[in-house]
Write a structure and sequence with these properties.
With 397 residues, the protein is mainly alpha-helical. The chain is built from 16 helices and no strands. Helix 9 runs antiparallel to helix 16 and helix 12 packs antiparallel against helix 16. This is MFS transporter. It is a multi-pass membrane protein. It is found in: Cell membrane. It holds the Pfam family MFS_1.
Amino acid sequence: MRLKIHTSTELLEPLSYLLSFFLGFEAGGFQFILLEIAQEFQLNNTAMGSFVSVESAAIMMGPLLFGGLGDRIGKKPVVIFFAFVFVIGCFIITNTLSLIVLFIGIFLVGFGYSLCQSATIAALADAYGKESAEPIHMSQCLFSIGAVLGPLVTHYTMGEWGFDWRIVFSIAGGGYFILLFPLFMTKFVNRSSRQYHPALGSGRKEPPWQSILCSPAFLCLFLSILIYVGMENGLAFFLDLMFTDELNASAQSSFSVSLFWLAMIPARFLAGIFCRHQQLFLLVGFGGAAIFLYLLTTATQPIQALACCFLLGLFYGPIWPSITCLATNEFPNHSGRVAGIMLAGSGFGGAASPVLMGRLADIADIRTSYGVLSVMASFGMIIMLLYTGRRILRHRS
């Protein structure tokens, strides 16, 4: 049973879901159209990975520069302003044929993406406290639904209606523009003044945010989310290349991305219901990802690769929202800053992984790249074992 919040905040939860939906639409659609962009601008695999890294670099920089802003002035103005930045970035992309201007648009989209997502998650954490795991996981379910529809809608509109790849950003930017109006009428709960910290006990103040950066719990969660987003971007952005070059099945490439995100929906829904077992979901998620990423490298038929994509979505699904929930609940007085730093870690992992994947694909092949992701997932499982062991020892003491 979640906390009851004042009726003036009733729009917060559904709006957070819709905001996540359109972010997911952009993410899934972008993953599907990357090869189309590379072909239009004649980019090789390394340059294609660098193109993705522009958005990921913006996702990393945004929270580092403005991650604590929501804790100081409130989450509402942060969400509104950077939703507008996202809209501007989408508008630029849909109205340019210049590669340089396209880079600028992608950077603005990533900047708006990161600050909107981190501030929205922090707002849900403020509104629901320790019961925030369910709405945060549900918002990520809507993100996954958007990511499922992104490739499918894009594939259909490009094939049947003659649109080009820019339709992804037209839909995502238009959705965000419409949501700006109800956002102005929504009240956000500010709980940054809470002094109770469950890990420290009643009556003790949470330490200043600078000391959080050296906390073993924070470092484990930060490294885990860095690895996870590297795994996510590395897998999804290069599935089109895998199906086109390795499996000679370009017609199935859009379904591979959609299947991956489709499987995340039930996984994230169940993780939200059974949110007390988030650490177990993380251990199983990283472990299963390591296994099926390896199996993907051995796939010789499209049906085998599609099955791996679906199963990888099941194991990937709970990881990102579970890490974010654990982080914001560990440090509730700094929910905005912590959520922002987690997004910065996401951006760093997302920026480095596509470049590495593209370079390995140029030197060897895409199967080698996916083998590296399997190793990364194994490291993620080891880190979560350390985190879980630390929490067990802390509770016993």
